[in-house]
Amino acid sequence: MKISWHHSLLGHNTFGMNVSCACYAEYDSEAELTAFFAEGGQSALPKPFLHIGAGSNLLFTGDFPGTVFHSGIKFIREVPDRTGAPEKLSVEAGAGTPWDEFCLWCAERGLWGPENLSGIPGETGAAAVQNIGAYGVEFQDVVSAVRCFDAVTCSVKTIRKADCRYGYRDSVFKQSAKGRYIVVSVIMELSRRAVPRLGYGHVRAAAEAALSETGQESLTPGLMRKVILDIRNSKLPDPAEIGNAGSFFKNPVVPRSSYDRVENYARSRYGQDYAVPHFDAGSGFIKIPAAWLIEQCGWKGFRDGNVGVHDRQPLVLVNLTGKASPDEIIALEKKIIASVYDIFGIGLHPEVEHI
Ligand code: EPU
After folding, report:
1. pTM of the full predicted structure?
2. For residues 302 and 294, is the Cβ–Cβ distance under 8 A?
3. Catalytic residue among 71, 144, 185, 247
4. Residue to mutate, 230, 232, 247, ligand 1, most ligand atoms under 8 Å from C-beta
5. Chain mean pLDDT for the chain
6. What is the CATH number assigned to the segment(s) 243-354?
7. Which of 30, 31, 47, 123 sits at 20 to 30 Å (Cα–Cα) from 152?
8. What is the dihedral of CA 245, 249, 250, 253, to 10 degrees?
9. Terminal CA-to-CA distance of the chain, rounded, Å?
């Protein structure tokens, strides 16, 4: 275990918060992690404990008084496939593998599965915790099992997908197993057979345009990856250029009656033919894009000192100057939540984890 004291977290969070932790601990293998805990090494480290990936979905609200752990377990390898189906392939990736390296690895080998999740910042272990999602696909659609170190029993166990209790940006690792399980690797089930997923937004149109542009007869994982990366790059700010943590809020899922109020508001403002963007979430519930709600409240492109709201995707709060403090981001977050609530009566909830 590599341990460093009073460690800066500036390079460990894509929001660019200039904060530090009392202790930073990094390991490179499952064996190293297991031995450290089995020998009681953790008892000498300041608490609380926090495991992070690339810090691409969190907001440090100040200096962290405890120990931040990070997995340096990086590998991608084929493993025996449990289905035995000839078109299937199982691949295991270490928790510290950058997620997009895994997506690229699959695309280069013509393997279908994670291509719509291309370009999402962060690491594979965090992807399993957060159930990352984009363009109609979620991590849970690709994973078959998650291997975790259990800090209570000091052993590694394999958790089948069904037991991960995946939901919208949610999993057992964020709920009852929080603090107990540390993801060491994930096992993904990929396909050699074409399974393009084109149903989200303009993905189908963009894929058709890419086919005619390249003269390719059919889609490949590599071309789908390019289509997705082009869409992402046209909307989302690159954290290497401007500090951000992706979508700051979750898209709210509301009862039909709340949606009707939103629709009445929009139609009185824009006319009776106006169509509010929304998705059926089942059981009488409707998902409304938070980006739309925030834009209606006039926040798109807002700037105030060091912080702002992205001008192409208002769901993303940005550290405009690189000098924003956690308090400035939180003040903006509160103002946005209050204005959406005032106008629509809908409470937004952060997607970004506040530490
Ligand atoms: N919209 C607006 N104004 C805008 C942008 C969007 O009104 O400026 C409305 C449009 O109606 C659009 C809808 O919002 O159709 C959805 O927009 P988008 O496709 O950009 O997706 P999103 O719901 O805002 C979610 C994820 C993103 C993911 C995209 C694409 C959440 C919280 N966010 O955003 O994930 O990339 O879908 O699938 O679910 C992330 O989690 O960090 C993230 C970026």
Report:
1. 0.96
2. no
3. 247
4. 247
5. 97
6. 3.90.78.10
7. 123
8. -170
9. 23
Q: Residue 15: name the closest of 290, 328, 228, 313 by CA.
A: 328
Q: pLDDT tens across 39-82, in order?
A: 999 999 999 999 999 999 999 999 999 999 999 999 999 999 88
- Which entry of 56, 138, 147, 169 is annotated as an active-site residue? 169
Look-up of token digits 């060091």 = 306
108-129 confidence digits (pLDDT tens): 999 999 999 999 999 999 999 9
Mutation to probe ligand 1, out of 56, 238, 292 (largest number of atoms < 8 A from CB): 292
Q: How many CB atoms lie within 10 A of CB 226?
A: 18
Q: How far is the CA of 312 from the centre of ligand 1 (A)?
A: 10
Domain covering 2-71: architecture: 2-Layer Sandwich (3.30)
Per-residue pLDDT reduced to its tens digit, 280-330: 999 999 999 999 999 999 999 999 999 999 999 999 999 999 999 999 999
Backbone angles phi, psi at 279, to 5 degrees: -135, 140
Ligand 1: list residues with CB < 6 Å: 134-135, 200-201, 235-236, 246-247, 250-251, 277, 289, 291-292, 295, 300, 313-315, 351
Tell me the domain boundaries of the chain. Answer: 2-71, 76-235, 243-354
**Distance between CA atoms of 86 and 95, rounded to whole angstroms?**
27
Any idea which residue has 């999402």 for tokens? Answer: 120
Alpha-carbon gap, residue 198 to 208, rounded angstroms: 10
Write down the pLDDT at residue 175: 96
CATH class of the domain comprising 76-235:
alpha beta
